[in-house]
Design goal:
Chains A, B: Pfam families: Iso_dh. Two copies of one chain form a homodimer. By secondary structure, the first copy, chain A, is an alpha/beta fold. Chain A is built from twelve helices and twelve strands. β7 of chain A pairs antiparallel with β7 of chain B, so a sheet runs across the interface. The complex binds 3-isopropylmalic acid (IPM) (2 copies). One 3-isopropylmalic acid sits at the interface of chains A and B.
């Protein structure tokens, strides 16, 4: 197959981890006879530095013309004092909105070799295998009106039926392809948007009789993600709750540096990126963990290109390197020296060859 | 001293645990020569059943005429299908608003005897000693306009300078009386209300040079509460973020059944209540853990009545009963049989006598 992929390395460790991920892509291309045309573009701080715009037009155009996007990470202290339209995160928010990427998908699964790094007791963390489906282009993040004076500020939390229906359908379909359990998270005892959300989930569930749905309040969910995370299969929620809960969930298994994500829109196109940030403190030192970026490539191959074999090969390689006891410094416990980003990537490439 | 306390037992296990707390109050009155005039009133489901109103006028009036309020818990499946103005939670939201209780204070401290019940690894949970200061009468919970049709819903997130200033001052003062560290939590990279919040914290910090302030994003905070909760001293945040983060924080030490809280307004008056809910499944069985309600009484004596000795006596009694290995069924691990609510309370009363 021939596919065009736009690569947005971004800031901090973004370029290092995307370089590792690109090497994996190239190895897969050779081994499985695919052609991946890579086109690089700017986003975030890198784009601000180059052209005073966290999301240049040209970047959006290249993404639009491609089959998938691979993103590293954006942000860093260099731009922290900038006015808000010149902040790296604006690039991230804008690309989601402009490409219509309404569904953020974050799988979180315990990795036996890494359980020592989990803050949770082993017996609680070990069975975790869940996916958070976060609505990504609505709610408090984008709604109007918003306003700020010196004495008053307003943000609007708006959801339309259409916005809720498409994300809820995405989650039901995903739950059906997994263990058939869906937790819909809202704050229906307080918010009108949550009441509409809950109503639509109730309507939709009739069409998915094979999926068992539970409504949960966001505050109880924040507790249960810690006390009994293995009880979850698929979680669906609105943008702001999803931001908080998905970050909370990302640390429970101790493998934050391992977690991929996708932002999609229901037509196969998607943006794939590690969950971790740009980690400016370790940028340029060749010590970042490239696993999340590499696993984001696996997610891209499976979900955007239906390359199941290739995706599994990458995941298998990553887990086998970990099982052999090779870790980057973030996961290092004791004994063996940590591998650098390029050394660890080389191990994965060897496995794939 | 003579004090008038309005007791709102509420629903589920509310009546049982407040009964235990009231016994403690009576024992303290006798031992330290105080007069506590107790007046009982209705709230939540109990009030809906009695007079079709989750917060009767009379209840508000009694509260207003008293020096402090002791609340059990509200809610239960019996009222879950009611229209929203006849839901028990409405009583809770209304009493906060009508009494002007803008500051919800939730101390969370690891209890050595209970660390086995924590979902976190012992070395992470054991040093936890933090307080969450949640804004309680503003933001998404109360702002207008709000709207819901079949196809669209809107909630408004509004904060005024005055609302932010008073809660931020409360938190600075509390931090000053503790370890001098304040984490102000917002989502200033996205929300205008958070930008105003952050600006006001920056202005206020000049007046508290002895307090070290850090701004944190709500998503990172949700992670750090799990990975390094001992790093926090005082956390201050807006209403909805506070709802989520305080529930998350309440489970990290394994002692949810032990946690008191207060909702105050800066003039010494406050409503004191356990953090746990009404637990309808175990209501009426005399097995609920009354510790959180009893510790809420301690918090009331200390914060509302400046009875430091009395408050410490209660806390000492509770911890000594726990250290002696007496637990209610929620905390029972193995071996010894669990004590009932009244048996466990009797142990505490013995210690106090
Ligand atoms: C950088 C920020 C605007 C963004 C968000 O809140 O969506 C990030 O936290 C994320 O979750 O991707
Ligand atoms: C019952 C509900 C409305 C309430 C809230 O969200 O404030 C509760 O969760 C709490 O935290 O006291």
């Amino acid at each position: 197959m021939e596919k065009t992929i736009t690569v947005l390395p971004g800031d901090g460790i973004g370029p290092e981890v995307t370089e590792a991920a690109v090497k994996v892509l190239q190895t897969i291309a050779k081994r499985y006879n695919h052609i991946f045309n890579l086109q690089y573009a700017l986003i975030g701080g890198a784009a601000i530095d180059a052209c005073e715009n966290p999301l240049p037009e040209e970047t959006v155009e290249l993404c639009t013309q491609s089959d998938a996007v691979l993103l590293g990470a954006v942000g860093g202290p260099k731009w922290d004092q900038n006015p808000s339209h010149l902040r790296p995160e604006k690039g991230l928010l804008a690309i989601r909105k402009q490409l219509g990427l309404f569904a953020n998908i974050r799988p979180i699964k315990a990795i036996p070799a890494l359980l020592d790094a989990s803050p949770l007791k082993k017996e609680i963390a070990q069975e975790v295998d869940l996916v958070i489906v976060r609505e990504l282009t609505g709610g408090l993040y984008f709604a109007e009106p918003r306003k700020k004076t010196n004495d008053y500020a307003l943000d609007s939390l708006v959801y339309t039926r259409e916005e809720i229906e498409r994300i809820v359908d995405t989650a039901f379909l995903l739950a059906r392809s997994r263990r058939g359990k869906l937790a819909s998270v809202d704050k229906a005892n307080v918010l009108d948007t949550s009441k509409l959300w809950r109503q639509i989930v109730e309507e939709k569930k009739v069409g998915y009789p094979d999926v068992e749905v539970e409504h949960m309040l966001v505050d109880s969910t924040a507790m249960k993600l810690i006390t009994k995370p293995s009880a979850f299969d698929v979680i669906v929620t609105e943008n702001m709750f999803g931001d908080i809960l998905s970050d909370e969930a990302s640390v429970i298994t101790g493998s934050l540096g391992m977690l991929p994500s996708s932002s999609t829109r229901g037509d196969g196109f998607g943006l794939y990126e590690p969950i971790h940030g740009s980690a400016p403190d370790i940028a340029g030192k060749n010590i970042a963990n490239p696993a999340a970026a590499i696993l984001s490539v696996a997610m891209m191959l499976r979900d955007a290109f239906q390359m199941e074999t290739e995706a599994s090969a990458i995941e298998g390689a990553v887990f086998s390197v970990l099982n052999d006891g090779h870790f980057t410094s973030d996961l290092q416990t004791k004994g063996k020296p940590a591998l650098s980003t390029t050394e660890w990537t080389a191990k994965v490439l060897e496995e794939l060859d």
